[in-house]
Structures are given as C-alpha cells and as structure tokens.
Amino acid sequence: MGCEEKYIPCGLVDEDSGQLHICFGSSYKTTDFIVDTLEDWWNGLSSAQQKKTKRLQLKVDNGPESSGIRTQFLKRMVQFSDQIGKPIQLLYYPPYHSKYNPIERCWGILERHWNGTQLKDVDTML
Fold first, then answer.
1. Which of 6, 53, 115, 119 has the fewest CB atoms inside 10 Å of its own CB, making it the most exposed?
2. Radius of gyration of the chain from Cα atoms?
3. Which residues contact 1 (CB under 8 A, 6 or more apart)?
4. What's the rounded Cα separation, in Å, for the pair 126 and 122?
5. Looking at the domain assignment, is residue 107 inside a domain?
6. CATH number reported for the structural domain that contains residue 49 in this entry
7. Which domain holds residue 30?
8. Of 55, 60, 53, nearest to 91 (Cα)?
9. For 25-50, what is the mean pLDDT?
10. Total structural domains in the chain?
11. DSSP class of residue 30?
C-alpha cells in the first residue's frame, strides 16, 4: 500500500472511566507487546488512581499471544502484578466471542475516525 513502516495497534479500555489507551508497535502483536502496553497504561495513571485500584480485571480473547497456556504471557503478567503490588484477574472470552469484548467496538470507531484515509505515514495514523 506504499507504506514503508508497519505499525500494529494494541488497545485497552478502562470500562470504569471510558478511557481508551492505544499503543502502536512496529512488530507483530506478541505477549511482550501486550504486557508492555499494559505497563504503559499503568504508568500513565496518576498515583491517586494507582493507589485507588484494588485489582486489575482484564478481559482477553483466547488468541495465541494471550492464551492462558502461554507461559511467556503468564510469566510477564505475574512479573507485572508483583511490580505494581496488585492482583490481576484474567477473564477469557470463549472462542469466537470476542465481539462481546468492549475493545472490539473501539476498533470500529477508530476506523470511522480515519474515514478511509490511506495510512501512509505515522503522522496520518496518529
């Protein structure tokens, strides 16, 4: 499509506040990319928000990079949980039910925002 750079989005929706957090990576979506996005989101919260949070509840699909049998994903999640001092609960959607995940609705909104624009460079995409 004429793009020299390739960026993959990874998004998080805070259902309590309605805030969307998107990170773009230049490689494939991997376990590390997902947890790095989660860390980036957490570090963007104020200390009051972090302190107020009792636990994190993550709704994830059963994709190959976030599967509950994926040892690298679980290892990174445990490290992140230890780092922030909060328990993390992983809620998995059954196969083919990701349409119920709130983040999926955000992708449609983002596509409408781009309105068919050719994403030829990083500035246009962002």
1. 115
2. 16
3. 118, 119, 120
4. 6
5. yes
6. 3.30.420
7. 8-119
8. 60
9. 88
10. 1
11. -
Percentage of the chain surpassing pLDDT 90?
33
The residue with tokens 């679980």 is 74
98 domain-assigned: yes
Check if the beta carbon of residue 19 is closer than 8 Å to that of residue 44: no
**Token pair listed for 112:** 């409408």
Distance, first Cα to last Cα, the chain: 17
In single-letter form, the type of residue at position 30 comes to T
Contact 104, 98 (CB under 8 A): yes
Domain contains 17: yes
Instruction: Establish if 2 belongs to a structural domain.
Output: no
Angle at CA of residue 84, ends 83 and 87, nearest 5°: 105
pLDDT tens-place string over residues 59-94: 888 777 887 777 888 999 999 999 999 999 998 888
Which whole-number Å values give the CA distances from 126 to 99, 114, 119, in the listed order?
25, 10, 9
**Mind giving me the DSSP string for 32-97?**
HHHHHHHHHHHHHS-HHHHHH---EEEEE---TTT-TT-HHHHHHHHHHHHHHT--EEEEEPPTT-
CA distances from 95 to 28, 98, 112 (A): 21, 7, 26
